[in-house]
Each structure stands twice: as structure tokens, then as C-alpha cells.
Amino acid sequence: MSKIDPTLAHQAPVEKTEHPDETGQDRKSENRRDAMIILATVAGLALWGGAVALWGIPGLYIPALALVPVIWILLLMVTRG
């Protein structure tokens, strides 16, 4: 026989309410933003792959070398809040 906790037995069930920020429009805009981020990432990788195919090893490391200052700025922005 199991014991029932008397403190939890008297609680009313929690009803899910819809908040204004959980509407379909906000989800659509978030999905569109996420899709654009993924599209930009895939396009960047495709361009980088094309550079490797066209110019070989320099096409691999020169874009990475050029992105070092960008990554530094992004890291500084993230750490400063």
C-alpha cells in the first residue's frame, strides 16, 4: 500500500494558459529567423568549399585566417554581455 503525501493531495491542477508571446506569429518569426541563420551558415560553408575546390589549400586556410578578428570581436561581445 502506497502512502499519499497530504501536502500534495490538496493542490489544484495547473492549467496551461497561453501567453501573448506564445502566439503563432512569434513562433513564425522565430522559425524564419532560425531558417535564415541556417541558410547563411550553409551558404558560407558552400562558398568556403567552393574556394577549396577552386584554389586548393590556400582556399581552406586564408578565409579561416581572415575570420580570426571577427571571432575575437564576437567573443568580446559575448563576454561583455
Describe the structure.
There is one protein chain. 0% of the residues are buried. The protein is 73% helix and 0% strand. Helix 2 (24-55) packs across helix 3 (57-66). The chain has a domain at 32-81. The chain is mainly alpha-helical and 81 residues long. The chain has helices spanning 6-9, 24-55, 57-66, 68-80. It is elongated.
Which series of helices and strands comes N to C?
HHHH
Question: Any idea what the radius of gyration is?
Answer: 25 Å
Distance between the termini: 54 Å
Overall strand count: 0
Major sheet summary line: none
Which spans have pLDDT < 50 for at least 5 consecutive residues?
none
Percent in strands: under 5%
Class from secondary-structure proportions: mainly alpha
Q: Give the proportion of residues in helices.
A: over 70%
What is the approximate shape?
elongated
Separate helix tally: 4
Quote the average pLDDT: 84
Oligomer: single chain
Key features of this structure:
81 residues, mainly alpha, 4 helices, 73% helix, 0% strand
Summarize the structure.
By secondary structure, this protein is an all-alpha fold. The protein has helices at 6-9, 24-55, 57-66, 68-80.
Task: Furnish the topology, listing elements before pairings.
Blueprint: H1 6-9, H2 24-55, H3 57-66, H4 68-80
